[in-house]
């Protein structure tokens, strides 16, 4: 009776009466039970679906690290700080040194570390793997990023790459040499000035200013003055490209899972600093169109706007649109900045840690100056120990941790029963290959001699790949090497580089596929000449 009263009081105005009581007493618990049962069934079905999806590699006899239902390995692949450790685990423990299957949620991807297999994928059968991963960037705000060469696909990529490649012919690089030397001299003065007033010099910061000023000057004739201005605006803006926020990672996860939602929400995926560089390039283009030609990268793109002629000999304009030109220009400024600066920073740290190697390199530089009268293009190109030191630095610290290609035509891996389907991503773990004791005895040791001409025959083909592999490798490799060599040679001739107390070890940051020094590279500089 008491129970009944309470129920009636609880629903006084609804007038639910006896029927409701019946429902509450007998049917509701059953309904709840049925709902749980249905939910459980859906979950089991979804789990079974996930399990079946994650059988993809096992069915082809390809090893995989343990998978987590539904997410596969995405929690490790998308976590910037875990990605590298996971790559190493897959490389050494799950067959990645040959090939290993991974899952980004339910999407199978392949990790290929075997040099012979890489030769097939990246070089010989490149027409099956011409693209990299693409992102649908529907927002107008991302148009500059979406049109960069790095994201271009198929024929469009081929055409654009052919237009951009002549930027770095031997003749053009030689022509840029005096400009690079000028910027390197500014770098040396700036560093020595800092050495007089500060307890140590942050070489990552300073090399970053040097590489930014150099690429801006060589490719566009823009003077950034990052080594002269107190508060260099260019440098501040370019730095923001390399600060990866949680928001950005979440946006990319959203993009890979729900591209339509990103489109509906009109989310911006590119870094806001892109707008700053877009404006700089627009201004420079306006100056060029009024007649100032330099024969540099920007001119190449602008001239490609008016290339003519088809098979029948009819004149046709094949213009590069303005957005395409701006996109490649912004890409060059950003790509030309961090990679070379990190290489130089790591090299100077390694030389500070190994004074005997530093001394041998300085000796080679002094002999070059004695022979040629100054640092010359020919002298730099012929300096074998300098080349070996840069190559060994790039082996230990390759700025790009992974290479990546997207399959565009079904591909059967030679000699194996494994098929790669169109759309599948193939990656290669550069960092792990570079430190694999199978290819590099005592891999953790900085030993430039490995790259001297007499020892080069001992290096297995495609086990030293800091600039990538095949027709889609780094477009600016020869320029980057020349720039790094000039910067390092000038620094060594001007100053002894030493470890700073409390900064004897270097911390590296493995972030979104890029390897960079963490928290700068702080060193002591001891000038070799009276100032
Ligand atoms: C030490 C310096 C550098 C290193 C280690 C480096 C490394 C790389 C790597 C690993 C790739 C991908 C290659 C592949 O997928 O096979 C790449 C691509 C690229 N790099 Fe570099 N890079 C450096 C300097 C530069 C500079 C100075 C520029 C521009 C001025 C530049 C522009 C590019 C561009 C545009 C691509 C995309 C090529 C394409 O998709 O066709 N890089 N770089």
TrEMBL record:
Transmembrane segments: 34-52
Binding site residues for heme: 474
Key words, A-Z: Endoplasmic reticulum, Heme, Iron, Membrane, Metal-binding, Microsome, Monooxygenase, Oxidoreductase, Transmembrane, Transmembrane helix
Recorded topology in the membrane: Peripheral membrane protein
InterPro entries, alphabetized: Cyt_P450, Cyt_P450_CS, Cyt_P450_E_grp-I, Cyt_P450_sf, Insect_CytP450_Detox
Family: Belongs to the cytochrome P450 family.
Protein name in the entry: Putative cytochrome P450 monooxygenase isoform X1
Source taxonomy: Eukaryota, Metazoa, Ecdysozoa, Arthropoda, Crustacea
């Amino acid at each position: 009776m008491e129970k009944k009263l309470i129920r009636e009081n609880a629903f006084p105005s609804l007038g639910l009466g006896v029927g409701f009581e019946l429902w509450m007493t007998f049917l509701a618990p059953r309904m709840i039970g049925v709902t749980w049962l249905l939910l459980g069934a859906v979950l089991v079905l979804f789990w079974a679906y996930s399990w079946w999806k994650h059988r993809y590699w096992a069915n082809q006899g390809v090893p995989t690290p343990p998978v987590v239902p539904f997410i596969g390995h995405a929690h490790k692949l998308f976590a910037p700080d875990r990605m590298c450790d996971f790559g190493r685990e897959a490389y050494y423990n799950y067959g990645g040194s040959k090939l290993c299957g991974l899952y980004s949620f339910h999407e199978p991807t392949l990790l290929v570390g075997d040099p012979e297999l890489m030769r097939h994928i990246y070089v010989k059968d490149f027409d099956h793997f011409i693209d990299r991963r693409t992102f649908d960037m529907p927002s107008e705000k991302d148009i500059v990023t979406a049109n960069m060469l790095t994201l271009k696909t198929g024929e469009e990529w081929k055409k654009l790459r052919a237009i951009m490649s002549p930027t770095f012919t031997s003749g053009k690089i030689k022509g840029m040499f005096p400009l690079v030397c000028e910027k390197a001299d500014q770098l040396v003065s700036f560093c020595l000035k800092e050495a007089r007033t500060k307890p140590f010099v942050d070489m990552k910061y300073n090399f970053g200013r040097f590489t930014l000023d150099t690429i801006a000057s060589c490719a566009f004739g823009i003077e950034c003055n990052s080594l002269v201005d107190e508060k260099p605006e260019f440098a501040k803006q370019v730095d923001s490209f390399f600060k990866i926020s949680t928001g950005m990672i979440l946006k990319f996860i959203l993009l890979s899972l729900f591209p339509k939602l990103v489109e509906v929400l009109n989310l911006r995926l590119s870094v806001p600093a892109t707008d700053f560089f877009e404006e700089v390039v627009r201004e420079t283009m306006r100056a060029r169109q009024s007649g100032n030609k330099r024969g540099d990268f920007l001119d190449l793109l602008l001239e490609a706007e008016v290339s003519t002629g088809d098979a029948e000999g009819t004149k046709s304009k094949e213009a590069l649109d303005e957005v395409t030109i701006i996109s490649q220009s912004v890409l060059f400024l950003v790509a030309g900045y961090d990679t070379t600066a990190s290489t130089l920073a790591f090299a100077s740290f390694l030389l500070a840690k190994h004074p005997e190697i530093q001394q041998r390199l300085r000796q080679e530089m002094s002999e070059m100056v004695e022979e040629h009268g100054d640092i010359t293009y020919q002298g730099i190109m012929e300096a074998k120990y300098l080349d070996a030191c840069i190559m060994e630095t790039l082996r230990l610290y390759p700025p790009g941790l992974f290479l990546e290609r997207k399959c565009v035509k079904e591909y059967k891996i030679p000699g194996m029963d494994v098929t790669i389907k169109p759309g599948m991503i193939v990656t290669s773990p550069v960092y792990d290959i570079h430190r694999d004791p199978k290819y590099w005895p005592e891999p953790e040791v900085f030993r430039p001699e490995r790259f001297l001409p007499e020892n080069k025959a001992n290096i297995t083909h495609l086990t030293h790949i800091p600039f990538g592999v095949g027709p889609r490798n780094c477009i600016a490799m020869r320029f980057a090497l020349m720039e790094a060599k000039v910067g390092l040679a000038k620094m060594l001739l001007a100053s002894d580089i030493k470890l700073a107390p409390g900064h004897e070890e270097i911390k590296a940051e493995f972030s979104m596929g890029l390897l960079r020094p963490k928290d700068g590279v702080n060193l002591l500089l001891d000038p070799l000449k009276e100032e």
